[in-house]
């Protein structure tokens, strides 16, 4: 814990504590740059620094605008593709439910165990082929989603990192 003596000035909790004699609480002198004079140099340095700051600001602003546009395009494409994917899942679910109900209707209308076995075999084959086709469709939609989501970001990031001219 640090104790202060009478006459110490506390600037704030987060800043260095300074005593009236120009030293910090550890007795070390503070640097005073006001006594250093470089005629003509400080004005030029300030102008150069300001010019660099403006140039840096312009670059950061342009990059920020590019990335904002990339994210806008990416989210837009993502929303479209996610909607298509979700609708395809609903379509597949509806088709599978209809197929299962159709199978059960035919199964209950069977007259013999041989008919049940034949219907079950046909349904299993049909379900496997349908599931395979459905998975291909979903995979294609997932690839489209990944491509359309990532492409705008890649394009704009390349434009920002490798500007032409």
Distance between the termini: 59 Å
* Contiguous runs where pLDDT drops below 50 for at least 5 residues: 8-16
Q: Please, what is the average pLDDT?
A: 79
Summed up, the helix count is 2
- The helix-strand sequence is HH
Helical/strand content category: mainly alpha
Estimated helix fraction? over 70%
Total beta strands: 0
Describe the biggest sheet? none
Shape: rod-shaped
- Beta-strand percentage range: under 5%
Q: Whole-number radius of gyration?
A: 36 Å
SSE arrangement:
Elements lengths: L40 H68 L4 H49 L4
What characteristics describe this protein?
165 residues
Brief rundown of the structure:
This protein has 165 residues and is mostly helical. Helix content is 71%, strand content 0%.
Describe the structure.
The structure is a single chain. The protein is mainly α. The chain is 71% helix and 0% strand. It contains two helices and no strands. The protein has helices at residues 41-108, 113-161. Helix 1 (41-108) runs antiparallel to helix 2 (113-161). The protein is rod-shaped.
């Amino acid at each position: 814990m640090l104790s202060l003596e009478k006459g110490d000035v506390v600037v704030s909790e987060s800043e260095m504590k300074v005593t009236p004699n120009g030293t910090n609480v550890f007795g070390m002198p503070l640097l005073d740059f006001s006594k250093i004079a470089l005629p003509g140099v400080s004005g030029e340095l300030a102008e150069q620094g300001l010019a660099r700051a403006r140039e840096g600001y312009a670059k950061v602003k342009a990059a920020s605008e590019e990335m904002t546009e990339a994210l806008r395009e990416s989210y837009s494409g993502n929303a479209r593709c996610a909607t298509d994917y979700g609708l395809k899942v609903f379509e597949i679910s509806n088709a599978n439910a209809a197929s299962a109900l159709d199978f059960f209707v035919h199964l209950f209308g069977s007259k013999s165990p041989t008919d049940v076995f034949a219907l079950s075999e046909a349904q299993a084959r049909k379900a496997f082929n349908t599931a395979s086709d459905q998975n291909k469709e979903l995979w294609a939609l997932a690839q489209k989603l990944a491509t359309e989501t990532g492409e705008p970001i890649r394009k704009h990031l390349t434009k920002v990192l490798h500007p032409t001219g």
